[in-house]
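ingest -> fold -> write
write: protein_1
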Amino acid sequence: MESPKEQSSYTVEQLVAVNPFNPEILPDLENYVNEQVTSQTYSLDANLCLLRLYQFEPERMNTHIVARILVKALMAMPAPDFSLCLFLIPERVQMEEQFKTLIVLSHYLETGRFQQFWDEAAKNPHILEAVPGFEQAIQAYASHLLSLSYQKVPRSVLAEAVNMDGASLDKFIEHQVANSGWIVAKEDGSIVLPQNEFNHPELKKNTGENVSLEHIARIFPILG
């Protein structure tokens, strides 16, 4: 085991890679969570490492830090980071009010119930407003989920999903038109979303059939 002086020359990611089960790096990992919040960066590996260390030394667990980890994990959706983190948190801690709230919020996001999500989030600003970029991250996730479900989405549905209206919604749509290939339909103002294999299943089906037929054509002569 290296001395504290030697450890100080490593970045947090290097400390995690070199000796992830060393309890002496626990304060560094906690500070790194706060750094992720202020700098709007993210490291799932470092955060999971910290949660594992808390399992070995539960008396050192900082629930404020744990809450921040879970909020950052929510912001990473649709990645399964929230579930990965929650698995390492003791059930007794999960029963605290702030964690019960985060679990409910996660469920609403996973099931696409955005109106319920934003309503619940509004009741708990002390949890979410402490992490910069949270609202924007969820709006990006909502847009992603809509793009998988709709070919054309009504403006009202989009407004509910991203919790915007009026000029702020107009600006959001303009940004997506410029950067994500959205098109505003002239006839009703609805949003035409870019084609993908989820909102246009025939794209995936056609690709799969073409590949299958090509393979079959090559295999039949061999079998003959």
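write: protein_2
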Amino acid sequence: MDSSSFVKEFISLWVRDPQAHKEDFWHTYIDYEICLHTNSMCFQKKTSCVRRRYSEFVWLRQRLQDNALLIELPKLPPGNPFFNFTSEFQVNQRMLGLQEFLQKVLETALLLSDSRLHLFLQSQLSIAKMDACSQGQTHYTVAQAIHRCPCDVRFPIEEQGHEEDCKTFWDSDCDSTTSSGLGNSVGPSTPVEEDSAHEFQTIISEAELFSSLSTSPRNQQHVHS
């Protein structure tokens, strides 16, 4: 068979668009948008976009470790009880660390079979519901939870050469709860080898990084992960 008929498998991942959310007067946390675009048969949805906070990344790593004891998992950026969401440097460094963590996880074939990884990346379920669903304790399956998650956004890689389509999209009535200005970021890409089984493209805009942060009082606040 002609080798040109084979389509190279790829998984593109973005962690971007940090947003601050107030839990109460004193406590604030930041979540991040995780966008995935792939042609891999391991994923039921080829494009998805969800938001996750740091504590959910911690949960994911622990569950993956429980299911793959012989694999040395990549590390997360360290937790910081005094994390300052108004610090561009701190937020940017954590965001880059979270993206690197997920990229390395997706490079490990064994981990791609863990249903909790797929629920984390492609559903809007809480930690408790992801645990229950992965154990078959919900009335819906993993596949149903994933397909319930809306994804009506256009990815940065898809927007090149489609400016008019993008304008039409953003002018339309879209009920997606996960879109946050996708495609407005341009930045350095993470270098990878050309023959890698998974290609990851990092598109990050430091200039626009904090434009999406919700307005919060800048007085002393304790930020939860």
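write: annotation protein_2
The beta strands are 11-22, 27-38, 47-53, 222-223.
The chain has seven helices and four strands.
pipeline exit 0
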